[in-house]
Amino acid sequence: MCGINGIINFNNETIDNHIHIMNDLLKHRGPDGMGSYKNQNLLLGHTRLSIQDLSEKGSQPMTNDQNLWIVFNGEIYNFKEIKKELIEIGHKFYSNTDTEVILNSYKQWGTNAFKKFNGMWAFAIYDILKKELIICRDRYGVKPCYYYYHEDKFIFSSEIKPILAITNDGLDHNKILLGEHLKEGCFTTDYKKINIIEPGHYYRINIEKKDIEKQRWWNGLENLHNISPNRKIIKDKFQEKLNQALNLRLISDVKISTSLSGGIDSSIIFSELNNINNSILELNPFIVKYEGNLTYDFAIKLCENFNKNPFIIESKNDLDINSIISTFNYLEKKQPYSKQLALYESQNINGFKVSIDGHGADECLGGYVDNIKDFAIASQNTMVDAYTAINNISNTNLLKILKNNYLTPINQYINFDLKKKFKIDNHYQFIDSSNNIEPSNSFFKDVITLQDFDFSFQSLYMKSNYGFLQWLLNKWDRASMRYSVEIRSPYLDFNLFQYALSIPMNHKIYAGKNKSILRDAYSSKIPDEIINFKNKQGLPSNKNNEYEEIILKNSLNEKSFKESPLWDSKKICDKFQNNFNTSEKLEAIKICESYLYDLAMKKDIPDLKIKDDQFKYNILN
User: Fold this and answer.
1) Domain 221-363+469-531 falls in which CATH fold?
2) How far is residue 382's CA from residue 72's CA, in Å, rounded to a whole number?
3) Angle 513-518-522 from CA coordinates, rounded to 5°
4) Tell me: domain 2-218, CATH 3.30.540.10, correct?
5) What confidence tens digit (pLDDT) does each residue in 81-136 have?
6) Nearest 5°: phi and psi at 531?
7) Are the C-beta atoms of 215 and 493 separated by less than 8 Å?
8) What is the C-alpha to C-alpha distance for residues 97 and 94, in angstroms, rounded to an integer?
9) What phi and psi, each to the nearest 5 degrees, are found at residue 364?
10) 573 catalytic, yes or no?
């Protein structure tokens, strides 16, 4: 796990210290080493978190033939299997890294190699002879990669801040008021020209021709599983695939830890890990204790069952402007999720670099209240099952659900709902925003294909591929990598995720239980109070009335806020003095969050005039 950066100057100008500055802003992602590579008008940068092959042979940028150069962030869990195949073909290796396996795989199979990889990644490979850069992301977007493309410059990075350091890009007033999930699903950011490399895609950049080609190498709809109608077979197959995913994620040259919430997903991971005999595992889990945590006692009891001594992280909802700014900066999000940061800070303090966690089960098994609302009536269950499932995890009245037309076919659903999200004709009070946002070509192609599926699957697939899952993964990536900890998520193993996604909805909601197949599969291994727990609870944000007041008061009086051309600051301040109505307050809070977010994102950016000799690492030519 690491941080990657890159700059292409199509006008043939290169400024070497720019890649150093970008690397320096990612040193939290890779505190064990930094490196850079230069070839004419291309610069590559890397910060290293040493997990596989801790020797210098694992340093990046890496080459093994002086033609292909790579910077890589992530893990290829099946790299040993692929390496064996490549050695039989005749390839030579000089390290024990998965990075070198990617290089030789690309050399052997080109972009077809990506389908062989089981893991999480964002990497860039430069071919000197072809003067061509390939940037590739994993299937679901577990590992992030952002890019900026304008006129004669293309820049990419694992995070947004390094790109801002070089471009000083500004907020886009058309995106300020859009929801976070929507922006993630359209693979864009709050900034004008900073976007997201799409998951399951690679971008091919021809430097001489100044040409950028985007190709989809993975399509989840083309990789669904045939599911047996036999419920026992489904349960056994799910357990088999989860165990395979867990064992794959044990490859490491450093100790592996885990976190535990007491919810069903992390409890299954924790319990199954305790049944694996591997000295690399340290299974005294990390547990966040906070006011209102409904599953804390479950987590403690599970630790007692396995005779483990957990690390307890006491998390409080202390709020002040400095903590809010820091959280915005660390997470690169306009949301105060400090508990996630506290969790991985504790893991770092206690000497861990890797944590196997339970993210991803809800997204393939439909574990959220919104999933239930979307597919409960459309599923093959009886009305009684739907009613029971909804009331098991929320206080939502079934009649309110029935008022929504959840049985609408996908083409009407998209035309009526999602397209409006991309062009909203709201008349805002304080900002002149068209709210236009353009979804990807893959989105529209998937919408056409999804017409042949039932609505319950349509809903789950779109939410797991276009927005919510990507937002969740980015949040957890920033929280963990802020403290140099790599998260490994067995539920996101593509063999398991695709299998779970393919399971018919009548097995996911069954006998009044959501994620029913998961609960039934592990009912003999997990305590009944966890299996039967009704509420869905993740680590909550610190967003409350106090937070809103802090956001408003620390924005409205600032000179730079008042002088911004992006919003009508006078009108906002006047309304603030005379009390906002509900919609005005919500809009004002979003604007003030954006203002503080931009300040937070740019507060650590150094002077671009820093000289190269102030850095302690060298450009490789």
Assistant:
1) Rossmann fold (3.40.50)
2) 49
3) 110
4) no
5) 999 999 999 999 999 999 999 999 999 999 999 999 999 999 999 999 999 999 99
6) -60, -40
7) no
8) 9
9) -105, -15
10) no
